[in-house]
Amino acid sequence: MRGSRLRVRFSKHGKVRFTSHRDVARIWERSLRRARVPVAYSAGFSPRPKIAYGLALPTGYSSDAEYLDVEVDPVWAAGIGNETLVGALTASLPTGMTALAAVELASGEPSLQHAVTSCTWRIDAAGADAREASEAVSRAMDGGELLVQRERKGRLSIDDIRPAVHAVEVQGNITDGVRLTAELATQPRAVRPAELLASLCPPLILLRACRLHQWITTDTGERREPLAFAELSVAAAGVEP
Amino acid sequence: MNLWHRLEPLLPQVSKPARYIGGEDGMQAPRHGPGVVSWLLTYPDTYEIGLPNQGLQILYEILNERPDAAAERAYAPWVDLEALMRSEGLPLFSLDTHRPAALFDVIAFNLSAELTYTNVLNCIDLAGVDVRAAERHDADPLIGAGGHCTYNPEPLADFLDFVVLGDGEEAVGDITEVLHDWKVSGRPGGRAGVLRALARVPGVYVPSMYNVAYDGDRLAAVEPRHPDVPAVVEKRTIADLAEWPYPKRQLVPLTEVVHDRLNVEVFRGCTRGCRFCQAGMITRPVRERPAEQVRTMVGEGLRRTGYDEVALTSLSTADFSGIERVVADTVSGAGCGQVSVSLPSLRVDAFTVGIAAQIQRARRTGLTFAPEAGTWRMRQVINKLITNDDLYSAAESAYSQGWRRMKLYFLTGLPTETDSDTLGIAELARNCVALGRDHVRSPSVTVSVGGFVPKPFTPFQWFGQNTVAELRRKIGLLRDGLRRARGVQLKWHDPAASLAEGLASRGDRRLGPVIEHVWRHGGTFQEWSEHFDLGRWQAAAAACGIDIDAYVHRHRTLDEVLPWDHLSAGLHKDFLWQDWRDALDEVGLEDCRWTPCYDCGACTGYGIEHVVASAVPPAGGSQGTGMDLSRGGEVPVRLLERSLAGAAT
Lengths: 241, 649
Known about the structure:
The complex is a heterodimer. Chain A is α+β, with helices and mostly antiparallel strands. In chain A, about 25% of the residues lie in helices and about 35% in strands. Chain B is α/β, with parallel strands linked by helices.
């Protein structure tokens, strides 16, 4: 019997944002059991719960737009209201993690890892005020290349991230620096806010980053969230500013 | 006062920042206030090693349940954060409310391993408190310690204000009351006043209340400085584990730790009588938790924590009365998902494998046994009375039921050990692999060898530890002996680390300056091979005029004053000496749980006795009795019989 696939959107703020992607996976496995959600297990010698986590959130970043897909008992899924489920999940999660929405996916819906094409970030940075930051961003967006040095599997490479930087806006000054928003591509390789800041001239220093949205761009060029807000069973009331 | 806002900007710069955030499920909400005695329970190693420590978690709950106490937790910051803390002037902090360590009334360390001693000094220093007890001020926290290593706390005597021997459940309450009374009555007598009062609490040892006399190089006496201070400090023992169903809310970490599972202690104490095992000697008598309470703690614990694994912990869990029923109930009674049960410290016999087969249906990865020595002769010396046949039937049983990997733990450098005893380890391993070939493709055995370190309050406390060179030679023998043995992997513990452990294990107060020297020269995290450096210890010993040979490798004599003679684990010294003579005569001793008393002193001295539900020894295996209990005891579980029958055809 095939299970039902649920997609859950959750936020991650405060102290718990220092947990890693792997930590979050462990936290979810335990939280789902505590919430008594009948998760489907893989068959075989070493059964694993069928949970697919989306894009990794860098350790230390916060988020209003994390997702996971979990396969559950379809009979159970048919009997539980989304709002009840979202409440039960939040109650089982540690302080700082909040379930925002849960929706049963149509069959054939592609996995998060494949479908998501870009993310919108709120980025707080030090090293410039709003005017200086605006100038640096203009230079970067107008120039031909945006080079960063990155490490992959122990090897250093110089990459041009300019094609992956869809948009950057300077929002204004904050007490300890400047606030930006940026939409950064996740494919073929995700660009991190810290990499964007390092590529600017002069470079800015990351203070805080928060993922506000993940986006799926369809073949027709249309952009939507993995759980569009219309589908949300609970409005994102728990989202911190 | 909360240091989080100063810690937070440092965390993106360090490895595994989730070690420092707290926020675990099960975290208590400590209520500080005037008259409330605040405890900072500190594990002197990293969070991932320290968080699962059950002793610390038990005291954390018991203290927070008291209206007159508040307890928080701290762990040693890893070297990267420590460097940032020192450059930023950030002191050691609690994880629960990120409160500065120096604001607590007590900083209490769990001492589980000698190689963490330098970390204890580092944590005291990071707290902003003088590492030397004699230099501390009235306003400084009291520095205390508990845990197995406190049975010889003398190497740390210069640094600790007080030490608790034995079970802490009741002692922490008594200490809290003394500190509470002292605080609310205007701290009479200052620091010395409260330490004097603590010295009168049963189980509490205050090193500064004792004079140490030497006769030339030899320790002559450790004697109380005041008439109201006990000449011998006796350990504390809780009579009935059923009265202490802790932890009730085990901490569920947000990041990866060792033993990351629900842990339920099924009994405390062990009377198998293995002569090398300090834990078995100092935690007597055996006190079983009622099976019904175990079931409740497992069921509620799994529901609350969301863990899918539970460990039934003790020093030899297969000895728990009715272990099969408890295991069967746990496996069948679990909620949604699959639950696996792990039994650390498995006895070596086929009966045990039968239980393991019941519980590891899901993930049959590997089985671990600890025969400890390579020959029957050697195992009689150490009183680990398992025969070669016990091990082979366990191996046969394991391989025939689908396990492919076995891990065997051994000690080398044991008293009277000959090269043929050492090489017996290789033979056992090879024979186990050969047995496995009848059942599975490419069976494997991992042999893990550690250098034996004699410990206080064991019959081997008089034994001169093997030198590093001798341990290396024996490991070399084993490597040669296993060179062409297919399917056998050999791993060994660094003999150099065993030397440092031995130095701290049986040292006296003259070791204090050595430990301080190692710490001052950057020797923290000595349990971690990448940070351990024997050269640092040798340089420190040379600088302090300490003869390592005399402390570590010298055989001690009966008339010698031992550094822990003024402390007591209840064991009569003449019992230990007789057991030492029996060891040299290769005479084994039966388990006193099911046989007459040897008057070791642990029960009679404290007016307590074993709490064991079953009057019958467990089935299978001869360990601890010198007899084949599979005939005299209960019938082995059916699963095992079937598999053995299958193997015979």
